[in-house]
Protein: Cytochrome P450
Amino acid sequence: MITLNLSSDFNCRPNLLQNISETDNSSLTSPIMSLHLFSLLIRQNRWILEGELCNLPTVVWRPRFVNYCAQDDVMCEDELDWDDDDSVTGWARNFLNESRLNRPNFQSNCIAAEISNKKMGSSSITNILPRMERLNGPYGMYATVYGVQTKVIHVAHPVPARAILTGAGVLEIGGTGGIPEGSFWDYGGFPCLQSIGRIFRMRMTDRNHTDAFVTSKKMSMKRRMSSSSQRMLTGSTKYPAYDHFKNFSGDGVFTADGSDWKAKRASVIHCLLRSANMDDLLEIEANRAADSFVSEVANALEIRKSRGKDEKKTPVLNVVPMLQRSTIGLIYRLITHNNVDFSSATTARDKGRDCAERAESSSLKSSSPRSSADLASINLEEVSSEYSSRSKYSEQEEQIKSLLPTYLQSVTRIRMIVLAQSRSIWYLLPRWLYRAFSPMYRDEERTMAPIRKFAQLACENALAGSPLALLSLRDSHSSYAGGRGTSTKVSKDLLDEAITLLFAGQDTSAATLSWTLHLLSLHPDKQERAFMEIRSVIGEVKTKTISKNMISRMPYLDAVIKESMRLYPVAPFIVRKLTTEITIPIDEEFAGSRKDAKKTISMPASTFACIWIYALHRNIKLWDRPDEFLPERWIDPKLRSRDLGQEEYGAYMPFAIGPRNCLGQPMAQVILRIVLARILSKYMVLDPRIEALRKVIKEEDKVGFSPIGLRKDMQAGFTVLPSNGLNLQLMERT
Ligand code: HEM
Structure:
C-alpha cells in the first residue's frame, strides 16, 4: 500500500520512480475535486493490487484548471513597439542580461529558456521532453493515472508509438500476410506493414475489443465495427479520447469512429483528393494563397504609410494572421469552388464599392478554379442557374467575408478551449455535467457560433462538382440528426465535415508556414541557401507561378519543411484508446543485464495512449543535435547516418501514421512547398530581434550566441502556433 501526502503534489510509487509531478496553483477545496481525489485514491490502491501498470513508472497526474484565456492570444501583436528604438534596445539589453546570468553557458541557457516553464499553457508541451528523459522507462514511456476509469500511457518512442497507431504485428496473429483490399490500411495509406509485422514480435489479444467500441445509444449500430477482421486490425481508436472535440467537429471524419468513420474517410478521400482536376486546382490555389499573402503585406505597408510611419525603416509585421487569411482562402475555395478572395487587401478595397458592381466583377473577371478546371463535369443547367442567381451568391460571399475575422479568432480560441477541457476536471466527469455547470462550455458555445455559421455558408455556397457538394450527395454525409446550428439545406454530417476540413486545412498549414518562416528568420544562412535553390529553378521572375514540377526540383526547400515540422509538429501530441492489449519486447537498454528482467511489456486494453510527436521528434536517442534547426540532416548522407530517427518508422510523424493518419497530407505537402517557395522568392524574412541584439551585444557574448534562445514559445492549443504571433521584417528581394 502507498501513502499519499495530501499536502504536497501527488507522488506515488516512490520505489518505482523519481519524484515527478506537475505542480499548479489550483486548490483542492471544491467538492468535485474532493470526489476526484477520492477516486484517485481508490484507483491508486487498485493499481497496487493489480500490479504495475505495464511495468512502467506510474505517476498520478493531477488534471489542471487551465487558464485558457491567458494573454497568450496569437492575434495580438507583441507588446513591444517596434517603431520605438528605445523600447527595442531596452528589450535587447534585458534579454542579454537575463541570458548572461549563467555565462559562460550562454547557449545551454538559451536552450533551457526555450523549454522553461514560463507559461502555464505551453509548459505542458515543452516540458514533456525533459520529463520523459528523467523517467527513462522502457522506450521512455511512463504511465499516468487520472481517475477511476482513466489510465494514460505517455509515449515518445517509435516502437510503442507505431504499435499503438498502426496495430502493427497484427499480421502475425491474423496471418494474412498482406494488406486486405478495402481494409483500414487501404484508407490509411500505410506502407510497409509487413516489415513492421516482422520487426515486432507482438502479441495482440482480442480481449476487450468490444468494450473499446462501446458507443452511445444513438450511434451504436453505425459505429460498431462491421467485421471481426476490422476489429483485429485496429489496435487503437480515438473513441472516447476525442469526445471533448465533439462540440467542435461533431461527427466529422476527425472525430467519428468505427464504421461511421470508415465510410466518412472513404467519402472525403474520394470527393476531396480524387475529385476531378484536384491536382491542377491545388497548384492554382496554392499560388493564389501566396498572391494573397503578398497583397496582405502590401496592404499592411499601405496602412502604415497612411499612419505616417517612418518609410525608411523596414516595418515589422505579424505574419500569422496574414498566413491564416491566405490559407483559409485556399481551403475554402478548394472545397467549395466558390471564388472568394479573403485577403484583407481586397476586403478593404471592396468597402465602398457597390454590391452589384462587385458581384459583376467577381463573377466575370475571376479566374475561378471552377471555370479553369471543373466545367466539364458540371451540367449546363446548373451553370446557367448559377449565373442567374449571381447577386444571391455575392450576398453570401459578402456575408462570409465579413464573418472571416470573427471566424479566425474563434478557431484560434477553440483550439485552446478544447485542450484546456481535456486537462481539466471536466474531462473526468460525464458530458452532461460539463454542459450543465461549466463556464468553459458556455464559452465554447459562444466561440462555436461563428465557426458553425462560417461552415454553413461554405456548404451553402459550394458549387456543383466541388468536394462539399459531392459530399452532400453521399450516404455517409446525409444525416440531419442533432441539428443545432444546421439549416434545412445543410445536413448535420455535412456541416461537421465542413468545420473539420476548413479547420484541418487552414490552421495546420498556416501554423507550419509560420514556424518555418520563424526558423528561417533566425537562420539567414539557411534561408539564403533555400532562396538560391528556388531562384535557380524558377529563374529571375519573382512572381512567376510555381508548379509541382518545380518544387520537385527543390530538395533543400523540402528539407527545410521537413526539419521545421520535426521541431514544431503542429499537432504536438495525439491520443488513442487501446482496443486490445498490446505487448512489445522490452528494449535491451532498459532490461539491463538482470536475469529476472521481464522480456515484454504489456499495455492493457482500454488504456489511453498519448503519443508525444513533439518529444519523438526531439528524442536525443533518435536525433543528432535534436534541438538544432539542421535542414541539411535530410540531404547530407553523413548527417543522415547520424539520425536513427530517419531510419526508424514512427520516429518522424508530423502527419501521424496508421489508419487515422492525416488524410490531407498529399495536399498539405504541395501547399506548404509552393507557398513557401513563393514567399521566399519574393521576400527576405528577418527577425527584428536579431538586429536589435546585434546593436547591444558585446564581442564576448557573440561567441556563445545561439538563435535557439530567440525561438518563440508555443501557444498551447491542440495545435500549436507561435505564441503572440510572429513579428518579422519582409524585405523585398531585388
Ligand atoms: C501542415 C499540414 C498538416 C499537418 C501537419 C496535419 C497533421 C495531422 C495529424 C497529426 C493528424 C492526426 C490527428 C490525430 O490523430 O489526432 C491529422 C488528421 C487529419 N487531417 Fe491533417 N494535417 C495537415 C493538413 C491537413 C489538410 C490540408 C487537410 C485536409 C484538407 C487535413 C485533414 C485531416 C483530417 C480530415 C484528419 C483526420 C483523419 C482521420 O481521423 O481519419 N490535414 N492531420
